[in-house]
Amino acid sequence: MVKNVLISFKAFGPMRRLLQKGMLELKMSEGSTVRDVIDDVLLIGGEELAKLVLHQGEVSGNLIVLLNRRDVRTLENELDTEVTDGDQLTLLPHVQGG
Q: Which domain holds residue 50?
């Protein structure tokens, strides 16, 4: 029997507008990764969201991906980090000022 985990997903900026809400609750299979959650969100958000999130099939460098407020680039497995029940995944547009 496959166990499910509940993940909160938050999006900001144009991604939030395309999803028509700021937060989603996603039921994922145990063993799912950050990448799997993003893939499921892209299925919900459609092609326009995929254009914002992906660059050449990978998550765009113009985005910051946070898992429980930690940048996934600082995690050993990055986007292949497994998510666990209650985790929060956030996509933020990278903003630069001057």
A: 4-93
- Please count the structural domains in the chain: 1
Those residues with Cβ within 8 angstroms of residue 94's Cβ, 6 or more apart along the chain or in another chain: 61, 62, 63, 64
What distance in Å separates the CA atoms of residue 17 and residue 50, rounded to the nearest whole number? Answer: 13
What pLDDT, in 10s, does the model give residues 8-26?
999 998 999 999 888 999 9
Give the closest residue to 81 by CA, choosing from 43, 45, 28, 19: 28
| Strands of 12-97, DSSP E | 23-29, 54-55, 58-59, 63-67, 70-71, 88-93
Domain CATH number, residue 21:
3.10.20.30
With a threshold of 0.70, does the pTM exceed it? Answer: yes
